[in-house]
Amino acid sequence: MTVVFDGNPEHFSAAPQGDVRVIFAPGSADEAIKRMVEEDQERKNCVVVSDDKEIFLYARSLGAQVMHVAAFVGKGDGCHGGKKHPPADSGGKYIPLTRQENINKELRRLWLKEQ
């Protein structure tokens, strides 16, 4: 298991135990997590635990399994904001998050006449 934090390790007081690898990402933990999933050769076996919507969707779009924190720690059904999230389907094609946003923006412009 790998746990990724933002920031500097000097603020971490306890040493990890067992098979836990702790990474302190210079800059953003989000970017480090994205990069780790991108570089994973067996993404379907990778599980990303996060309540961050962007990380959740990005990891799922790459074919990784995703799980909300509540489900991971066994406290609840994994709901986020009262909405249930179905298990990720890793059979789809990969579309980067920025491309997804551009597609959605274009569809809103065409169908909803938004500018």
Features:
115 residues, two-stranded parallel sheet, 34% helix
Largest sheet: 2 strands, parallel
Order of helices and strands: EEHEHEHH
Alpha-beta classification: alpha/beta
| Outline | elongated
Number of DSSP E strands: 4
Global Rg = 17 Å
Q: Can you put this structure into words, describing what you see?
A:
The chain has 115 residues and is of the alpha/beta class. It has one domain. The chain has 4 helices and 4 strands; from the N terminus they run ββαβαβαα. The protein has helices spanning 29-39, 53-61, 69-72, 97-111; strands at residues 2-6, 21-25, 47-49, 65-67. A two-stranded parallel sheet has the order 1-2. Strand 3 (47-49), helix 2 (53-61) and strand 4 form a beta-alpha-beta unit. The longest helix has 15 residues, at 97-111. The N and C termini lie far apart (45 Å).
Secondary structure layout plus pairing:
Blueprint: E1 2-6, E2 21-25, H1 29-39, E3 47-49, H2 53-61, E4 65-67, H3 69-72, H4 97-111
Parallel strand pairs: 1-2, 3-4
Summarize the structure.
This protein is α/β, with parallel strands linked by helices and 115 residues long.
